[in-house]
Specification:
Layout (H helix, E strand, L loop, with lengths): L15 H13 L20 H5 L2
Length: 55
């Protein structure tokens, strides 16, 4: 899934093809799916980024 990078995090974003396959499988079972946008990357506005940058 999309992920804004956070310094020191061990997590990375999913590959686009993996994201598409995950969404396809959920939708095939009737599960509504929303993939979030990655707005805020440049200003550290994503969840956890501001807290991670606090000194």
């Amino acid at each position: 899934m999309p992920l804004n990078p956070t310094p020191g995090s061990k997590w990375t974003a999913s590959r686009p093809e993996d994201e598409r396959e995950f969404v396809r499988r959920l939708e095939a079972h009737g599960v509504p799916v929303t993939v979030r946008d990655t707005r805020g990357r440049e200003i550290d506005g994503a969840c956890g980024q501001l807290a991670a940058s606090e000194a």
